[in-house]
Amino acid sequence: MPVKYSIIIPAFNEEAFLPRTLAHLQRSMHNIEEEGELIVVDNNSTDKTALIAKEYGADVVFEAINQISRARNAGAGLARGEYLIFLDADTLLDDSLIRTALDVLESGSCCGGGTEVSLDHQTQWWSQLLLDSWNRLSVKLHLAAGCFVYCLREGFEAVGGFSEQVYASEEIWFSRALRAWGRQHNMRFQIIRGNPVVTSGRKLDWYTPGKIVLFSLPILIFPPLLRVQYFCSPWYTRPDNRPGKNDC
């Protein structure tokens, strides 16, 4: 049976979260009739990320340059599926959401999109407020969250994949480019409602509201800073003694 869809996970030092993600994903993919493949991109990890991915039966591709967009693109370059799903290493994907994404793409009226996001544990009130605000913004502006992005391979290749000019927010630029391509081909960019993907709230646990504002404000004021990895450090490093060493 030919591969219908590919799930691509960029991972940089994700030995703490990857086993849970892959075990959950194995169960979900087992319930999907179409043939799928799982690809983990080892983004120059120094821990057991690659070994864990192989133990769970994933195809592993190595990307030496530590950049999220480059890792996503490297995985897509190996993928054989007609449909692509990009998933974060700390995110749990249910079969119902895979099924919905595949059905939407199969309809021929959608080029790709994302879904609403929920957290894997209860956080402080301000964390939930941030998440609720993002979900509303995502639906209104047709922007996919980086933890779950689905698309047609044709559209992905047409827009050149994820921008390797930035070290963060590559999913925002990709959403805009794919949505524009979709309009040209009479296809919509759809944020799936009512079936949120469950992702880790680790960053919201690690950083206080003040620190989040501190590293976000310069980027919001001057977006070209996204081209410099130093200013995107929260996406590539973590506070000491926290689980999920150096998340991607």
Q: Summary?
A:
The chain is built from nine helices and eight strands. With 248 residues, it is α/β, with parallel strands linked by helices.
Tell me what the structure shows.
The protein is globular and about 50 Å long. It contains nine helices and eight strands. The protein is 40% helix and 21% strand. It has helices spanning 18-30, 49-55, 68-78, 95-106, 125-141, 153-158, 170-184, 202-206, 209-221, and strands at 5-11, 36-42, 59-62, 83-87, 91-92, 110-119, 148-152, 188-199. With 248 residues, it is of the alpha/beta class. Strand 1 (5-11), helix 1 (18-30) and strand 2 form a beta-alpha-beta unit.
Task: Produce the secondary structure layout.
Elements: E1 5-11, H1 18-30, E2 36-42, H2 49-55, E3 59-62, H3 68-78, E4 83-87, E5 91-92, H4 95-106, E6 110-119, H5 125-141, E7 148-152, H6 153-158, H7 170-184, E8 188-199, H8 202-206, H9 209-221
Parallel strand pairs: 1-2, 1-4, 2-3, 6-8
Antiparallel strand pairs: 4-7, 5-8, 6-7
- What's the overall geometry? globular
Q: Under the CATH scheme, which class?
A: Alpha Beta
CATH superfamily: Spore Coat Polysaccharide Biosynthesis Protein SpsA, Chain A
**Number of domain modules:** 1
Output the keywords.
alpha/beta, Spore Coat Polysaccharide Biosynthesis Protein SpsA, Chain A, eight-stranded mixed β-sheet, 8 strands, 40% helix, globular, disordered C terminus
